[in-house]
Write a structure and sequence with these properties.
about 260 residues; Rossmann fold
C-alpha cells in the first residue's frame, strides 16, 4: 500500500502544458508534490508562474528531452534532492505523427524520433524512477491513446508507439509485481487548446457533430484523464489494479458509424 504518512511526489513527463499540465495541476490540487518535466522551457515558466505561492513550493520544473537518458537521470535525481522520494510516475510526454503523408515516404529519422520520444521516453523514465518507486511502493501510469486500438490513415509511427505502450505496461506490471503497480490510460479526443502556453493557446469550439459522435455527448477535457491518473496512482483506492489499460474516450470507440 502507498505510504500516506508523507506528502506523495509525482514525476510527470510532458507536464508543463496540454494534458500533462492538467495532470500536474490535478495532482497538486490533490495534495501531491510534482516534478513537471517538459522539453518546452517557456511552457514550464508559464506553468510555474501561474501557480499560487503555496503550490509553487510543492512543484518543480525541469526542462529536458524525455528521449535523453541523461536528462531523465538528472531530473529524477533533482526530484529526490528536492522532495526526497517519488511515489508516482506519469509517462505523458509524446509527439504527433510526422506530417509526411504515407509511411512509404516517411523519413527514417522522423519515424525514429516518434519511437524514441513516445515509447523510449516511457522506458527511460521508468528505468530511472523505479528504484525510488520500489521504496515508496508507488505506481506508474502510462498515457497511451485510443490509436493503440484503431487508426486513421498515415499514422503508423504514432499508432506503433501507443500500441507499444499498452504492451510495455503489462510487461512492466509483471516484472515489478508486488513492488510497483503499472497501468495505462488510453485517451480519446481530449481538448487541450486552452491548456497550452499563451503563444499557442486557443479557445475550444466544438460543433454539435463533434459532441454527438461521443456517446457521452461532449469532447473530453484534461480533468477526465487527470482524475483517473490520481485514482490509479493511489494504492489505497486502486491497489488491486495493475497491468491494465483504461480507455477514456466518451464511448467513441464503441460507437459504430455507417456512411451512406
Amino acid at each position: 500500500m502507498t505510504d500516506t504518512h508523507h506528502p506523495r511526489v509525482a514525476f510527470v513527463t510532458g507536464g508543463a502544458q496540454g494534458l500533462g499540465l492538467g495532470i500536474s495541476r490535478n495532482l497538486l490540487d490533490a495534495g501531491w508534490k510534482v516534478m513537471m518535466f517538459d522539453l518546452d522551457e517557456e511552457a514550464g515558466r508559464e506553468a510555474m508562474d501561474a501557480l499560487d505561492e503555496d503550490l509553487r513550493e510543492k512543484c518543480l520544473f525541469f526542462a529536458g528531452d524525455v528521449a535523453s537518458e541523461k536528462d531523465i537521470a538528472i531530473a529524477v535525481q533533482r526530484t529526490i534532492d528536492r522532495f526526497g522520494r517519488i511515489d508516482g510516475l506519469v509517462n505523458n510526454a509524446g509527439i504527433a505523427n510526422p506530417h509526411n503523408g504515407s509511411f512509404e515516404h516517411l523519413d527514417w529519422d522522423d519515424w525514429q524520433r516518434v519511437i524514441n520520444v513516445n515509447l523510449g521516453g516511457v522506458f527511460l523514465a521508468a528505468k530511472h524512477a523505479t528504484q525510488h518507486l520500489r521504496k515508496s511502493r508507488g505506481a506508474i501510469v502510462n498515457i497511451s491513446s485510443t490509436r493503440a486500438f484503431q487508426s486513421e490513415a498515415d499514422s503508423e509511427a504514432y499508432a506503433a508507439t501507443k500500441g507499444g505502450i499498452v504492451a510495455l505496461t503489462h510487461a512492466m506490471a509483471v516484472s515489478l509485481a508486488g513492488a510497483v503497480r503499472v497501468n495505462a490510460i488510453a485517451p480519446g479526443w481530449i481538448e487541450v487548446g486552452d491548456w497550452k502556453k499563451s503563444s499557442q493557446r486557443t479557445t475550444p469550439a466544438h460543433s454539435e457533430q463533434d459532441k454527438n459522435q461521443h456517446p457521452a455527448g461532449r469532447v473530453g477535457i484534461p480533468a477526465d484523464i487527470a482524475n483517473a491518473v490520481v485514482f490509479l496512482l493511489d494504492g489505497e483506492k486502486s491497489g488491486f489494479i495493475t497491468g491494465e489499460t483504461l480507455r477514456i474516450d466518451g464511448g467513441m470507440t464503441h460507437k459504430m458509424i455507417y456512411q451512406d
